[in-house]
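STRUCTURE:
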C-alpha cells in the first residue's frame, strides 16, 4: 500500500489488432514515452471515460477551449472578446499567446454545464477567422 492508497486488482486480457494499427499503437506509446502498453491503454481508456462523464454530467463541469487565429482578421479580436464578455460568468481568465507576427493562441477555461460550455465554445469556434480550435473536457474526479 503506497501513500495509503490501495491498488485495485488488475485483469489481463488479450486484444487482437491488425498489424498497421498495432504499429500505430507502438509508435504513439513510444512518442508519448509510456513505459509499457498497459499504462498507455489505461490512459486512453481514462480519456474516453472523461469525455463520457463530461457529456452525461447534469451539474457544473469544466473544459478548456483552445483557439488559434490570425489577429489581423478584420474585427476578429473584438468579436472574440465580445463573446467572452457575454459569458463572463463562465470565463474567469484566458491565456493569450503570440505564436508568430500574425497568429495567436488562446486557452480559455470554461465553467458551467456541459451544454453551456459547448454553446460558448461553438460560438467562439464558428467565428470567422478562427483557424483551429478544440474543446477539451476535463474532470476533477479521480478515475481508476
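SEQUENCE:
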Amino acid at each position: 500500500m503506497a501513500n495509503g492508497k490501495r491498488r485495485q486488482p488488475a485483469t489481463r486480457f488479450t486484444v487482437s489488432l491488425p498489424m498497421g494499427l498495432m504499429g500505430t499503437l507502438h509508435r504513439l506509446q513510444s512518442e508519448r514515452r509510456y513505459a509499457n502498453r498497459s499504462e498507455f491503454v489505461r490512459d486512453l481508456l481514462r480519456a474516453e471515460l472523461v469525455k463520457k462523464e463530461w457529456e452525461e454530467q447534469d451539474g457544473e463541469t469544466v473544459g478548456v477551449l483552445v483557439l488559434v487565429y490570425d489577429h489581423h482578421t478584420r474585427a476578429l479580436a473584438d468579436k472574440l472578446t465580445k463573446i467572452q464578455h457575454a459569458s463572463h460568468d463562465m470565463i474567469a481568465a484566458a491565456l493569450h499567446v503570440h505564436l508568430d507576427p500574425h497568429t495567436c493562441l488562446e486557452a480559455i477555461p470554461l465553467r458551467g454545464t456541459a451544454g453551456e460550455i459547448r454553446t460558448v465554445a461553438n460560438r467562439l469556434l464558428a467565428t470567422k477567422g478562427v483557424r483551429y480550435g478544440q474543446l477539451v473536457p476535463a474532470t476533477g474526479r479521480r478515475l481508476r
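REMARK: The longest helix spans residues 37-56.
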